[in-house]
């Protein structure tokens, strides 16, 4: 046995040509792949960089848009709230104005009702006072008539006054005088204003309405209507009154020639008499 029989040979086994060819092919493929990859790597890097940039920018732009949209939505909501508040204020103001107007109307209506009630009461009181004065004047006139009739019915009163100068009525005065004289003989009824009966102020008022003049209803007011004139200067159509001016209890119409026509009382009715029969206190001129 040779001395080298148990010593393994250090020579590498011979590779087959097939394995060599395979390895060559694999190596070539690897190198080719590396070459292709290396050639394509700049473009790929640029693409990756571009994609990275796009990936970074998109979230930032989306965040800006989202914040702007939120601010716009908040602003819109704020404006809407302001509009609602203004509308509520205007509605409240309109309601307050309407309530104030209704309150004012009610207050005015209430005040007007009170005023009318007070005026009605005052008119009723005035009418009652006038009736009382007329009744008193009527009783006084009846007593004077009875006294004169029992003594000397046609005798003039001992009270004298300057005799007014006779004058003929003309124009409106003639119309007043003629109307008054046409009523002689009609009845006296307290509160009557014609045409079949009168009280004293009702007769004078009716006479002056013939010429378009409306006198106050009661004798107290008629005694201060127009201009005060002395009894010595009375003219046909003047109003004579008994009692003081402003509180007269009887009125009549001067018809001229020292005479008057008046609705005296329920006993005599409307009569024409001399002023000396019952001298008046004063006179007023309306015409």
Explained architecture:
With 287 residues, this protein is an alpha+beta fold. The protein has a single domain, classed as Alpha-Beta Complex (endopeptidase fold (from Nostoc punctiforme)), CATH 3.90.1720. 56% of the residues lie in helices and 12% in strands. The strands form 2 sheets. A 6-stranded antiparallel sheet has the order 3-8-4-5-6-7, sandwiched between helices. A two-stranded parallel sheet has the order 1-2. Helix 2 packs across helix 3. Mean pLDDT is 76; it is low at 16-22, 24-57 and 149-167.
CATH-scheme architecture: Alpha-Beta Complex
* Spatial gap, N to C terminus: 191 Å
Large-scale geometry: rod-shaped
Number of domains: 1
β-strand number? 8
Return the CATH class.
Answer: Alpha Beta
Considering the protein shown, what is the CATH homologous superfamily? endopeptidase domain like (from Nostoc punctiforme)
Radius of gyration: 64 Å
Q: Tell me the CATH topology.
A: endopeptidase fold (from Nostoc punctiforme)
Helix content: 55-70%
Order of helices and strands: HHEEHHEEEEEE
Stretches where pLDDT falls below 50 for ≥5 residues? 16-22, 24-57, 149-167
The biggest sheet, with number of strands, parallel, antiparallel or mixed sense and barrel status, is:
6 strands, antiparallel
């Amino acid at each position: 046995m040779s001395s080298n029989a148990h010593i393994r040979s250090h020579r590498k086994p011979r590779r087959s040509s097939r394995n060599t060819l395979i390895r060559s092919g694999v190596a070539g493929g690897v190198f080719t792949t590396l070459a292709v990859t290396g050639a394509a790597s700049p473009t790929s890097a640029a693409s990756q960089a571009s994609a990275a940039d796009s990936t970074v920018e998109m979230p930032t732009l989306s965040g800006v848009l989202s914040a702007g949209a939120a601010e716009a939505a908040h602003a819109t909501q704020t404006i809407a709230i302001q509009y609602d508040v203004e509308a509520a204020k205007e509605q409240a103001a309109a309601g307050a104005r309407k309530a104030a107007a209704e309150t004012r109307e009610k207050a005015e209506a209430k005040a007007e009702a009170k005023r009318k009630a007070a005026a009605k009461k005052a008119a009723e009181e005035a009418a009652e006072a006038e009736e009382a004065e007329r009744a008193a004047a009527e009783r006084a006139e009846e007593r004077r008539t009875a006294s004169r009739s029992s003594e000397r019915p046609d005798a003039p009163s001992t009270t004298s006054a300057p005799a007014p100068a006779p004058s003929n009525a003309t124009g409106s005065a003639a119309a007043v005088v003629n109307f008054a004289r046409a009523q002689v003989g009609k009845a006296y009824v307290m509160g009557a204003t014609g045409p079949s009966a009168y009280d004293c102020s009702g007769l004078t008022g009716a006479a002056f309405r013939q010429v378009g003049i409306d006198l106050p209803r009661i004798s107290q007011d008629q005694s201060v209507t127009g201009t005060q004139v002395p009894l010595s200067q009375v003219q046909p159509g003047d109003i004579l009154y008994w009692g003081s001016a402003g509180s007269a209890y009887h009125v009549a119409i001067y018809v001229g020639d020292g005479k008057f026509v008046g609705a005296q009382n329920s006993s005599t009715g409307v009569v024409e008499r001399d002023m000396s029969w019952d001298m008046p206190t004063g006179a007023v001129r309306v015409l």
